[in-house]
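Task 17 of the worksheet. Students: predict the tertiary structure of the chain below and write it out as structure tokens. Keep your answer in the requested format; marks are given for formatting as well as content.
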Amino acid sequence: MLLLLEACHVKLPLSLCSTDLNGCATINTERFRKLIITNHIVIPIAEHGIAVQQLCPHATEVVRRLQEEGYEAYIVGGSVRDLLLGKVPKDYDVATDAVPEEVKTVFPRCRLIGRRFRLAHVRMSGTLIEVATFRGPQVNDDDDHKHQNGRILRDNVWGSLEEDAVRRDFTINALFLDPVSGDIQDFVGGYKDLADRKLRLIGDARTRYREDPVRLLRAARFIAKLGVEPATETKAPITEMAPLLHDIPPARLFEEVCKLFMTGHAARTWEALQRFELTRALFPILKGEGKSGKAKAGNLLIKALENTDERIAIEKPVTPAFLLAAILWQPVRARADTLQSEGLNEFAALGQAADEVMSSQVQRTAIPRRFSVVTRQIWTMQPRFKNTHGRRAKSLMQERRFRAAYDFMLLRAEEDESLKALCDHWTEAQKGVTLNTGQRQFDERNKNDARRRPRRRRRPRSKTPAAK
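Model answer:
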């Protein structure tokens, strides 16, 4: 059980920072280090209660081998946070004072990756352990490391354990667990914040959001996933700074969208995004509520989010393609209606609307082709459900995406009751196809068996004596 410890929270007072022309703070390292040491506490295993058996043995082995080579190493970040909350960590990260090249010396088969954040990937028995070197504060703001708006472009400034703790984003992610001794190192009050269910940024919130605007989305995700509430200074600038997400590469934003909606907390995450008016920063194509950053969401979308969470809870597969179909259906349907009024048939109108909406959305969040193609097929199959008899109906049920499109039609019926009868028809039709197909396969198998006859052995020809 978590204990409520009397630990202070580190903030960045103005006396510890200098400000450049863009309003970006540069940390006074020496004075900052003194502040860190003042707030340092150690939580022994007897208090935090994380048993060694709960830890990933491969992560423990990585830490042990680095320590044996004389380096400092800890399990850090979300895995420690999740263990304290009684959750099973998805992955394990290790932080060390060894630079990537030194990590490769200890683990010759590891792979060094990254330019913006240089890391080492160590694989043990199929498990990937990400090893990062302690980072320090940015000493200067040259063009190679920081954008003029304050966003960090490269972060390969090595530092100490204390400096690495302060460089992290939220206090609850800045806990360092030594699996060998069992102690947790806390420099920023993250242990108490976790006990209080508080989400608090380390340092000045505006500066930290400006360094990496994706932290705006991470705040919403942690609120939904962990049930924490943001501190006043953490939540105050979120809505105002949402436009900073425009500067994030679309490919990275797509990864964040998957983390937001594909980890079992999609419905609560949507509520958090709406609460902080971040929804239309991710999906600007959606209709807004007045001038706010909130998006209008119907029953179809809410039900799709809830269904996704239910499938993940029972370990059924989910795909971003279906969820994107639900999120973007509103603008697709609206554009298709306009095209139909101009003379296009429903199928052609949906196809053109799908292309236009996708082209607009990928400017903000990249959508890999393997997902966008499926999403488009789900949309364009909707008019074909109106053909309930004949050859076209039978061929529709043989389509690879039929089931996904059918499920999507069921969601549409949540908003349009006129589709109920159509849904009932296709539900019954699938039962008949399943039974008929099974009977047909059984009959065909029996027919093949009846045709089989034992092969008669051919008698060898008798050799006639050669003529004399």
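Marker's comment: The longest helix spans residues 420-451. The mean pLDDT is 84.
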